[in-house]
Amino acid sequence: MKKTELRLKYKELRKSFSENQNEEMSLAIANNLISLPIWDKTYFHIFLPITEHNEVDTEFVLHLLSGKDKEIVISRSDFETRNMQHFLLTDNTKIEKNEYNIPEPVDGIEVPSAKIDVVFVPLLAFDKKGHRAGYGKGFYDKFLSECKPETIKIGLSFFEAEELIEDVFEGDIQLNYCVTPEEVYEF
C-alpha cells in the first residue's frame, strides 16, 4: 500500500478506539519496551501525543523513563522550516499545545540532536522492513537524519506491520524497532 492510503486507513482505525482501549494498548506498548536492549542509554527523545488524533499515550513510557532516571527530551516544531528544537524535560518545563494541538515545551534547556541516544517515533503505519508512514510533513525524517548514526529509532504503534510500504523515499529513515501491544519488531 502507498503512504497516502495507509494514512487514511490508520487514522480511521485509531478514531474507533475508546479512551479505555487507547490506555490499555499504550500500557501494553510501554510494558513491551522493557525487553529492548536500550536501558544503558542516557538521552531518550519522546513525543507527547496529540490526544485528538488518538495517538499512543506516551505517559506510561515517561513513567518508565523517569523510574530509570533517564534524561528525557521533548521537541517543539517549526512548521515553516520543518525543524524541531529539542529540550530537556524537567519539573520546570512549561508545556502548551500549538495550533495543531501538539503539546510542546515553551522553552528550556536545549539538547542537540547529536546527543540523543534513543528516539521514540510516532507513526501511523509501518512495514516489515522498518519503514514508516507518519503524517507526511517530514519532521521526523529530518530530525532523525541529524541524529548520530547509532541513535536507536523505535516506532510506537497500536497496529501490527504492513507487508510493504510501496512508496518509500530515499530520505526516509528506517526504524530499528517497532513496538506494538502484541509484539516487538526488530529490523
From TrEMBL:
Chemical reaction(s) catalysed: (6S)-5-formyl-5,6,7,8-tetrahydrofolate + ATP = (6R)-5,10-methenyltetrahydrofolate + ADP + phosphate
EC number annotated for this UniProt entry: 6.3.3.2
Entry keyword Electron transport: no
Residues annotated as binding ATP: 3-7, 132-140
Domain of life: Bacteria
Pfam families linked to this entry: 5-FTHF_cyc-lig (PF01812)
One MF annotation (Gene Ontology) recorded for this entry: 5-formyltetrahydrofolate cyclo-ligase activity
Keywords: ATP-binding, Ligase, Magnesium, Metal-binding, Nucleotide-binding
The keyword Transferase appears for this protein: no
Cofactor: Mg(2+)
Residues where substrate binds: 50, 55
Major enzyme class: ligase
Stored InterPro entries: FTHF_cligase, FTHF_cligase-like_sf, NagB/RpiA_transferase-like
One of the GO biological process terms: tetrahydrofolate interconversion
Family, per entry: Belongs to the 5-formyltetrahydrofolate cyclo-ligase family.
NCBIfam families: MTHFS_bact
Official protein name in the record: 5-formyltetrahydrofolate cyclo-ligase
Source organism per UniProt: Flavobacterium weaverense
